[in-house]
Design brief:
Layout: E1 6-11, H1 35-47, E2 52-55, H2 64-69, H3 78-87, E3 93-99, H4 105-118, E4 123-128, H5 132-137, H6 149-164, E5 190-193, E6 198-201, E7 214-217, H7 223-232, E8 235-238, H8 243-259, E9 268-277, H9 281-293, H10 297-308, H11 321-324, H12 335-343, H13 348-356, E10 362-366, H14 368-380, E11 386-389, H15 396-411, H16 424-429
Parallel strand pairs: 1-2, 1-11, 2-3, 3-4, 4-7, 7-8, 8-9, 9-10, 9-11
Antiparallel strand pairs: 5-6
Helix pairs in contact: 1-3, 4-6, 7-8, 10-13, 14-15
Length: about 425
């Protein structure tokens, strides 16, 4: 059977996904507070046979500029939306981001397992070790340092996995005649004491049809993040900026998964792309130019400043970034962007625009056939196992992609025409 790609849609419950101007597009509906809006998106993606949907979660305003000019923020908690979208669909997987730094393991395990049961085994957990600015916004002095947050994340995940594996088959009896409700001999207690968190007791939620939520991870830009992903993740998201970078990351992750004692096929590496589809090549390019021109500089400069730890507002917009960043340590997620800026002698204005149009996510632009060609090339040249599809306006980006590009991928045998299984884990592995 021909190898087929995996497709996951990326969502945020606010004005902007990765493209910070998407809410300003004339066709953007901006109905992010309307449950029917999210139900409609879920159905659109399920009709196209997407593997899943993942909600990022940013529970704070990184900067006042993000609040004022509509940056990447989450106005709603994604958990209720996951339940709503699961109820409106029957096959597509739904991933939610939950921080291991802001929540205790039992609360995470119980919440996610409950959603997994109620969705029929279609839930995924996108693990976020959390950035320190989240804790600062909550005035939490106990938040682990950057070096310790992966240790805590690993402890939290191990506890959750132990809880989810505590129920054996047949433990839930519910026999009216005998009066037996649960066979307690088939449930193991969880007893773990770690440096940061611990748990002791019996987990109360029965397993879903897939046993436990699928584990996703997007923090793979640092060596420690990659090690964590290689050990535990079933889906890894990455933002790369070129064919060569994608191939290098893909090979590195697969090698790490193998060294962790796992089958490389059990960890899908998905590259982030932002498709912009037009009836002709020139129309597609005009669409890209239009949406990118909507970026608000008063948002973009504070955004990049927050990620690099350097106040860019004090520098001329036409100054080369290499001359500015000699003293700054950018967030790991943007190291590739900064290196590209230095090599290509990019100005501050060029860099902040690149970040704000999608955090340097690769924009795949052209006719439906051309977009399909580009995705096929990346997929077949060992860059990834599929894609995280980023919208540039809602809901139009997903509607255009699912109606025009997906049928081409299906015709070429690169993407499924039907779901083969009922759970997310089955969908990802068949």
């Amino acid at each position: 059977m021909l190898r087929q790609m995996k497709l996951v849609a990326f969502l945020i419950t606010g004005p902007a996904s990765c493209h910070h101007a998407m809410w300003r597009h004339p066709e953007a509906e901006n109905r992010f507070l309307d449950p029917a809006f999210w139900e409609s998106i879920a159905r659109t993606l399920e009709v196209a046979r997407f593997d899943g949907i993942v909600f990022a979660d940013i529970p704070c305003f990184h900067t006042e500029a993000a609040m004022a000019w509509g940056g990447q923020i989450s106005l709603l908690d994604p958990i209720p939306l996951a339940a709503i979208m699961a109820r409106a669909t029957s096959h597509i997987g739904i991933g939610v981001t939950i921080s291991t730094g802001l929540h205790e393991p039992h609360a995470i395990a119980r919440l996610l397992s409950s959603l997994d049961v109620l969705s029929g085994g279609r839930l995924a957990w996108n693990i976020m070790a959390s950035q320190s600015d989240w804790a600062e916004s909550l005035d939490d002095d106990t938040f682990p340092s950057r070096h310790e947050r992966y240790d805590r994340a690993e402890e939290v995940l191990k506890i959750c996995l132990a809880m989810w594996k505590g129920w054996s088959d047949g433990a839930l009896v519910v026999d009216k005649e005998s009066g037996c409700f649960i066979d307690s001999t088939k449930i193991r207690q969880t007893e773990i004491a770690g440096k940061f968190v611990g748990a002791r007791g019996t987990f109360t939620v029965p397993p879903s049809p897939q046993g436990s939520p699928v584990i996703m991870y997007a923090g793979s830009s640092t060596p420690r993040g990659r090690k964590f992903a290689a050990t535990y993740a079933e889906i890894v998201f990455t933002v790369q900026h070129s064919l060569a970078n994608m191939q290098k990351f893909y090979a590195d992750m697969k090698d790490r998964v193998t060294k962790a004692g796992r089958n490389p096929e059990d960890c899908a590496v998905l590259a982030s792309v932002a498709p912009i589809v037009g009836e002709t090549e020139s129309i597609a390019r005009e669409k890209r130019a239009y949406i990118n021109a909507l970026i608000e500089p008063r948002l973009a400069i504070p955004l990049v400043s927050a990620y690099t730890g350097l106040d860019f507002s004090q520098y001329p917009i036409d100054m080369q970034v290499g001359d500015i960043l000699s003293e700054a340590a950018p967030h790991a997620h943007f190291e590739g962007v900064i290196q590209t800026a230095i090599v290509n002698n990019l100005t501050l204005g060029e860099v902040v625009k690149r970040v704000a149009v999608g955090e340097a996510c690769l924009q795949v632009v052209g006719t439906p056939e051309r977009v399909a060609d580009q995705l096929q090339q990346l997929f077949e040249q060992e860059c990834c196992d599929g894609f995280v599809v980023m919208p540039t306006q809602m809901p139009g980006s997903f509607e255009a992609f699912t109606r025009s590009v997906v049928p081409i991928l299906q015709k070429r045998g690169l993407f499924r025409k039907e779901y083969h299984g009922s759970t997310l884990r089955e969908t990802m592995t068949t």
